[in-house]
């Protein structure tokens, strides 16, 4: 299986749209991404590997506003399937560590499990949904995390997961394409646009999202537009927040402020000030 290095486009998108205070990437920790092989492509997007090596007395707290995807993350003593997170993901990094993750397509985990994705929202479950039930998780963690070459680790995970692949579900591709359209197109700000993309009425769309994604259509659109806001604030310190709010489809700046705070825990102005302090440090 081929294993290509991550692209600069991915690095830019990831750091400016999901990682809060993205200047920490490359300084406090490293992120690499690798494509999945053909066997996993109908359900998963890519492998991601996060590594850090800090001084013993150094503690770094990193916050991430995740995409609406489920992940299988291999980490020493903490391997789990992470359902879609509707809040912030906060992680403290200390010493030396590594996490190897597989990000599923939106809806891509549903064929692997025996329950609705809504039951996995904001929670973690056993990795054995995706692994052979006879697998020794501790041994699997050691085998993956002790491989120095990322390509070897990716190949190992691919072989492991390929033994458990479910039947193809064509709805996964439709849903994932619709979610990507929402993430790419900042003009999509209302649920009827999603209904049109998927050719579903409102009730069917809600049921489909609950079963396959574990989030609501309204939440998905708001999260995508807040991701757009994080990216804009990271690269543009001059645009008035009222103008940014209108460009992203919010009723006014007050509405933008409420949604931004709901997703990030702070106001757009507070986040812009934190970015400014980082640039000046």
The DSSP helix count reads: 10
Head-to-tail CA distance between termini: 43 Å
**Average pLDDT, all residues:** 90
Strand coverage percent: 15-25%
**Poorly predicted segments:** 1-12
In one word, what is the shape? flat
What would you report as the Rg, rounded to the nearest angstrom? 19 Å
Going by helix content, strand content and strand pairing, the class is: alpha+beta
How do the strands of the widest beta sheet line up side by side? 1-2-7-4-5-8
Architecture overview:
The chain is built from ten helices and eight strands. A hairpin with an 8-residue loop joins strand 1 (30-35) and strand 2 (44-53). The chain folds into two domains: 8-162, no CATH class; 170-280, Orthogonal Bundle (Arc Repressor Mutant, subunit A), CATH 1.10.10.60. The strands form two sheets. A six-stranded antiparallel sheet has the order 1-2-7-4-5-8. A two-stranded antiparallel ribbon has the order 3-6. It has helices at 8-17, 137-145, 150-162, 170-184, 191-198, 202-212, 217-235, 241-247, 253-264, 268-280; strands at residues 30-35, 44-53, 59-64, 71-74, 80-82, 89-94, 96-104, 124-125. Helix content is 42%, strand content 16%.
Write a short abstract of this structure.
The protein has 281 residues and is α+β, with helices and mostly antiparallel strands. The protein has ten helices and eight strands.
Keywords:
281 residues, alpha+beta, Arc Repressor Mutant, subunit A, six-stranded antiparallel β-sheet, 8 strands, 42% helix, disordered N terminus, DNA-binding, transcription
């Amino acid at each position: 299986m081929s294993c290509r290095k991550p692209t600069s486009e991915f690095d830019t998108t990831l750091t400016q749209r999901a990682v809060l205070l993205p200047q920490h990437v490359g300084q406090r920790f490293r992120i690499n991404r690798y494509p999945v092989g053909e066997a996993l492509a109908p359900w998963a997007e890519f492998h991601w590997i996060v590594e850090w090596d800090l001084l013993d007395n150094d503690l770094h707290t990193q916050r991430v506003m995740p995409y609406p995807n489920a992940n299988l993350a291999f980490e020493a003593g903490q391997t789990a399937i992470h359902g879609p997170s509707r809040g912030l993901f906060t992680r403290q990094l200390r010493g030396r560590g590594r996490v190897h993750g597989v990000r599923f397509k939106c809806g891509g985990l549903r064929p692997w499990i025996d329950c609705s994705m809504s039951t996995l929202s904001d929670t973690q479950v056993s990795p054995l949904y995706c692994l052979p039930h006879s697998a020794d998780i501790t041994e699997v963690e050691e085998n993956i995390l002790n491989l120095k070459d990322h390509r070897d680790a990716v190949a190992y995970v691919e072989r492991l997961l390929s033994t458990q692949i479910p039947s193809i579900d064509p709805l996964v591709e439709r849903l994932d394409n619709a979610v990507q359209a929402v993430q790419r197109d900042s003009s999509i700000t209302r649920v009827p646009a999603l209904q049109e993309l998927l050719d579903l009425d409102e009730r069917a769309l809600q049921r489909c999202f609950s079963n396959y994604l574990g989030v609501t259509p309204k939440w998905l659109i708001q999260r995508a537009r807040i991701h757009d806001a994080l990216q804009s604030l990271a690269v543009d310190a001059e645009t008035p927040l009222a103008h940014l709010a209108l460009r992203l489809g919010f009723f006014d700046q007050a509405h933008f402020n409420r949604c931004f705070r709901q997703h990030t825990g702070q106001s757009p102005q507070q986040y812009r000030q934190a970015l400014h302090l980082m640039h000046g440090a």
